[in-house]
């Protein structure tokens, strides 16, 4: 064979070339994720819900996979099927709760959906019980420890991933700002911690993450608060972000319409400078949300990173570098979402406890009428509301005459 026809073996990549290729891949996919994120957010709430759902499923798959033992799973064909069954049951329960809560004015007036809505929790419980019974029935001698470990691991994954990330979806329905702001605070805090850490970081923060420093941790906290103030000031100006998702077909161009929560309206505050006691009090105007952002930013900086430390400890336990390879150059979805889960959970709890307004809604009134009144009383409510609307000039008298003629009279 002629020497020129001999194929030369490719030279193995040097460590520098490997790092360079990884950096390029990571950077490209970072921009792809950022572009996809903003495209989904501006396209409408339903697209964000779709992304959250996909993240739940992929993260669950990644976490379940690291504890799986293929050699044993082959002898237990129903182990993986049960994992996915419990995931489906959990998502049916959680998503059903949200649909009934936020869209009861649609669900409760539909003849087909009404039974599923009124008995949703019982149906969900029975679905879970069926899976539990099947699990007990599938126990196989010699594999008890592995099967019970998988059972416990599955439930831990369901709580840490699916239950917590489900509240991120609820945040989206309450208003895009409650989804975007917590998520952006976590992302920027991670960036600030890296910048501050490599700039003046000296003291190691925690052994689970050797590269994390106390200086980076504190510096990122301060910068995240400043970022939160600025970002909140921008988002509050747009109803698309601060209004609840009363129309899932809306997007950044169609916008949303609502009476904004008082937390977004500037209020007057009086401040007496401690060093100028004899001077008149200083008055300033600021939206209460700017005070709440202090709490959000502090949680994103001081508590949410421990979600990442927890994930690092988990990976060290199973001796894996990443949870998966879902995102080229970044590892798995779980590697990018470890801090977001607990942050989204906190955002929902804080919002419901200190910010949300609890008013009578169309859905709650319909729910009360359907579940608390009999048919004749419901008819009387309809007639009474119609008379009121006729008196207010909102509907014509012909509507009332039609209702009186069609609806049965109360005995």
Describe the structure concisely.
This protein is mainly alpha-helical. Helices cover 68% and strands 4% of the residues.
Write the layout of secondary structure elements.
Blueprint: H1 15-43, H2 45-66, H3 70-73, H4 78-102, H5 104-107, H6 113-118, H7 120-137, H8 144-174, H9 176-200, E1 204-206, E2 209-213, H10 214-235, H11 239-242, E3 267-271, E4 282-286, H12 289-302, H13 305-317, H14 333-355, H15 362-372, H16 375-391, H17 397-406
Antiparallel strand pairs: 1-2, 3-4
Helix pairs in contact: 1-2, 2-8, 4-7, 4-8, 8-9, 8-14, 9-10, 9-12, 9-14, 10-12, 13-14, 16-17
What would your notes on this structure say?
The longest helix is centred in the middle third of the chain and has 31 residues, at 144-174. This protein has 17 helices and four strands. It is mainly alpha-helical and 411 residues long. It has helices at residues 15-43, 45-66, 70-73, 78-102, 104-107, 113-118, 120-137, 144-174, 176-200, 214-235, 239-242, 289-302, 305-317, 333-355, 362-372, 375-391, 397-406; strands spanning 204-206, 209-213, 267-271, 282-286. The termini are far apart. The radius of gyration is 28 Å and the shape is globular. Helix 8 (144-174) packs across helix 14 (333-355) and helix 13 runs antiparallel to helix 14. The strands form two sheets. The chain has a two-stranded antiparallel sheet. A two-stranded antiparallel sheet has the order 3-4. Helix content is 68%, strand content 4%.
């Amino acid at each position: 064979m002629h020497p020129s026809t001999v194929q030369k073996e490719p030279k193995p990549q040097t460590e520098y070339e490997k790092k360079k290729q990884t950096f390029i891949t990571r950077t490209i996919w970072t921009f792809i994720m950022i572009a996809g994120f903003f495209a989904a957010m501006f396209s409408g709430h339903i697209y964000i819900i779709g992304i959250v759902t996909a993240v739940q499923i992929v993260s669950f798959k990644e976490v379940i996979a690291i504890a799986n033992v293929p050699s044993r799973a082959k002898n237990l064909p129903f182990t993986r099927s049960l994992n996915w069954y419990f995931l489906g049951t959990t998502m049916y329960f959680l998503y059903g709760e949200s649909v009934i809560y936020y869209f009861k004015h649609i669900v409760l007036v539909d003849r087909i959906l009404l039974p599923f809505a009124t008995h949703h929790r019982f149906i969900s419980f029975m679905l879970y019980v069926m899976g539990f019974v099947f699990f007990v029935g599938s126990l196989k001698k010699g594999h008890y420890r592995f099967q019970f470990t998988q059972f416990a691991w599955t439930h831990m994954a369901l709580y840490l991933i699916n239950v917590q990330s489900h509240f991120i979806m609820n945040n989206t329905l309450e208003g895009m700002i409650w989804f975007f702001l917590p998520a952006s605070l976590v992302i920027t805090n991670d960036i600030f911690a890296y910048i501050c850490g490599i700039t003046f970081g000296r003291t190691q923060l925690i052994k689970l993450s050797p590269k994390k420093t106390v200086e980076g941790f504190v510096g990122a906290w301060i910068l995240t608060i400043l970022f939160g103030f600025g970002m909140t000031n921008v988002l509050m100006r747009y109803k698309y972000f601060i209004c609840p998702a009363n129309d899932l077909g809306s997007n950044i161009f169609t916008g949303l319409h609502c009476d904004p929560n008082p937390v977004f309206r500037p209020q007057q505050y009086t401040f007496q400078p401690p060093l100028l006691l004899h001077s008149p009090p200083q008055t300033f105007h600021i939206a209460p949300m700017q005070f709440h952002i202090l709490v959000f930013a502090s949680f994103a900086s001081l508590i949410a990173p421990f979600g990442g430390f927890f994930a690092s400890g988990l990976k060290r336990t199973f001796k894996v570098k990443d949870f998966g390879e879902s995102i080229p150059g970044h590892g798995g979805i779980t590697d990018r979402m470890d801090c977001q889960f607990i942050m989204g959970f906190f955002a929902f709890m804080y919002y419901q406890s200190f910010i949300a307004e609890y008013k009578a809604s169309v859905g709650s009134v319909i729910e009360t009428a359907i579940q608390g009144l009999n048919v004749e009383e419901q008819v009387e409510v309809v007639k009474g509301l119609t008379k009121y609307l006729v008196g207010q000039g909102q509907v014509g008298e012909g509507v009332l005459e039609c209702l009186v003629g069609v609806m049965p009279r109360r005995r």
